[in-house]
Amino acid sequence: MLEDIAQKIAASTSEIVGHEVIITDERSIIIGSSDPSRLGDFHEASVQIIKTGKPNPDTMNIDKMEGTKPGFALPIELFNKNIGSFGITGEKEKVKKYCYLLKKYIETMLYQEMYMKSTLLREQAVKNLIQEISVFDPKKSDESYLLSRGHELGYDLQPPHIAIVVDLFRFEEVTKQIYEKAEGQQSAEMQIQSFKLDVLAIIQRTFRKPNDLIAAMQDDKFIILPALSVQFSESRVIKEIKDKCLSMISEFETKGFSASIGIGAIAKNINELSQSYKDAWRALKIGKKLNASPGVFFIHDLFFEDLVSSIQKDLSKRYILNMLTTLQEQPDWEDLSKTICAWCESGFNQKNAANMLFIHRNTLHYRLNKIHEISGIDLKNYKNAFMLYLAVLMANMGTPEV
User: What range(s) does the Putative sugar diacid recognition domain occupy (predicted)?
Assistant: First the structure.
């Protein structure tokens, strides 16, 4: 770890103190130097400094030591172990004060570096665990292995869980704006990293139980696997999870961005959690197709839409062409399609449908008649209305070219 930052520290501190600076590893080999020609040299004086943990004594004969110049040197300590040394060339009494100050600076940097690396390793381990859960197959894998992996990271995967996917809304636009306003690429990347840390902090504040798994799977997508109590009410859990997700979106919006969120089914074991993970992604995908704005999409609310999305592509395309071609040619097709959906989703109730569309009932009546005249389908016939509604739903969800 010292090797990773030694040269940068030696060069930067030399500029500050105005003296030559070296850093050695625990073998007394120079790994950082303001004079690059000394890199890789053996620094004999450091052998005793690292061994004893004390600065070079006045009795040390510097002139006869290999690779050593007059000055002052101290050991670099990490977790009560001397892992190298730090020295400044010059008159001992003049450079001594700098050495003690810079020793603390170097050791602090090493602690921070170690903390960051251990944090990144843990985050990657949690991400890997979630990925293994997502592809778990009880016919091919042993559940006890994942339970053990979870315990190693401090998580108990035996209680019920539920999968949640957070997808930042228009993330590319957010990053583009950051790059446009930032002074240079490095500044922009730091701002984007800070932005993602803000998102993660909000998620962690919302789902803060020790047994809640959270990981950033992509730059703009996060996975949450909250643990549930063993004895739970499904309706209460669903409400609580939805409320927490809506709360997260509200907090995101105070920061100037938003998100769409997919929620899977409650899982009582690893196999069901794997399915919940897949369901959360499906809920997100379907919800985003049917809604232009951010929202919270729960798979249990989208079972019908999920079923529709599984219909064969060529069959779906033919059905849409057969049912909607004449209607889609109309300039007010968007209004007509919304009317069909509202009519069916309101339970074929004129008052409720008009309220859903924010229009007068006379306007609704006009649109229903227009749809009948153009398509030949009477929306007051429930079967016909449902057939048309199904076609609109297929069209809204998108039908790829065959």
Answer: 3-132
